[in-house]
Design brief:
The protein folds into 2 domains: about 170 residues, Probable tRNA modification gtpase trme, domain 1 (Gyrase A, domain 2, 2-Layer Sandwich); about 70 residues, Elongation Factor Tu (Ef-tu), domain 3 (Beta Barrel). It is about 20% helix and about 35% strand. It contains 7 helices and 17 strands. It is globular and about 55 Å long.
């Protein structure tokens, strides 16, 4: 049975106006022109130096763009976007309690809402809102942006049971999918370190955007030195931010985790050494074994 999981740590921005798409096209990493009633994307907003600030999903609802981002940092994202709005005919408003974000996972989830499960980013209208296959990786299931009042009833009518956030977190982490500033360091992380290329978060054919120069240079010169990877954890789960040491040298850092799985950032030159040492590394009283997701190319 498919399950629906409320993502309480996500909130929405409503972006509308004659210049909305043109405005966003100049500041985010993906091609906003592709967003349509049947298509959603994942994108990032960077510093001018190409460092991570925010990531989010973009879908279309009633002709406007809906941006799904971290709730705790939504006001910061709105403020930063507004700096670049200038005279563009664009409104950027917080949606508030009117809409809610859900994760839809499990066998039959896509069929229940009429979405093609094999194609990331495929979207359709549902329950007064919109549902779409995760634009990063279809195996992650779907996301839904639904009216707070009628969303639960619409999902229940299609056979969805109620799940818990741990159900989604286990799936997300095992697939190696980052979750905002929990896994990517604000003003430090680089997109290619976090899988944005393979996970459909960058359009290499679009025009310039904030941070585009460094991102492109890293790709074409092969300058990526670290990668964010899923790890299995034997023992107590290390706290986020715990350094990973190999022969006394700092080679990475633990990020988010749950139930014996976590994401961790590793230096690429250390991964071979970890493999030679039996495939795992000791972190405190735990052993971490990194895994390369099927989508990863490095």
């Amino acid at each position: 049975m498919p399950i629906c999981v409320p993502l309480a740590e996500r909130e929405l921005l409503h972006i509308a106006g004659d210049d909305a798409r043109l405005f966003l096209q100049g500041v985010v990493s993906n091609d906003v022109r592709r967003v349509a009633p049947d298509r959603a994307i994942w994108a990032a907003f960077l510093t001018p130096q190409g460092r991570y600030l925010h990531d989010f999903f973009l879908c279309e609802l009633d002709g406007a763009l809906i941006l799904d981002a971290e709730a705790a940092r939504l006001s910061d994202l709105k403020r930063r976007l507004s700096i670049y709005k200038l005279r563009s005919r664009v409104s950027i408003e917080e949606v508030g309690d009117a809409m809610r974000v859900w994760a839809l996972i499990g066998e039959g989830a896509a069929a229940a809402v009429g979405v093609r499960p094999e194609e990331p980013g495929t979207a359709t209208s549902f329950g007064g809102g919109v549902v779409f296959t995760d634009p990063r990786e279809a195996a992650a299931g779907l996301r839904a942006v639904l009216p707070r009042g009628q969303g639960p009833a619409a999902l229940a009518a299609q056979g969805f049971g109620r799940g818990h956030i741990q159900d989604y977190e286990r799936l997300r982490i095992r697939l190696g999918l980052p979750d905002g500033s929990r896994d990517m360091l604000v003003e430090k992380s680089l997109l290619l370190e976090c899988g944005f290329d393979e996970l459909n978060g960058i359009d290499w054919q679009k025009g310039c955007y904030l941070g585009q120069e460094l991102t492109a240079r890293m790709r074409y010169r092969g300058l990526v030195k670290k990668r964010l990877l899923p790890v299995t954890v034997e023992g107590a789960l290390p706290s986020p931010g715990t350094p990973i040491l190999l022969d006394g040298k700092d080679v990475g850092e633990v990020r988010s985790g749950v139930d014996g799985v976590a994401l961790a950032s590793f230096r690429l030159d250390a991964l071979a050494a970890i493999g030679d040492a039996g495939g795992s590394v000791s972190v405190g009283g735990a052993r971490l074994t990194p895994h390369r997701p099927p989508w990863a190319n490095f």
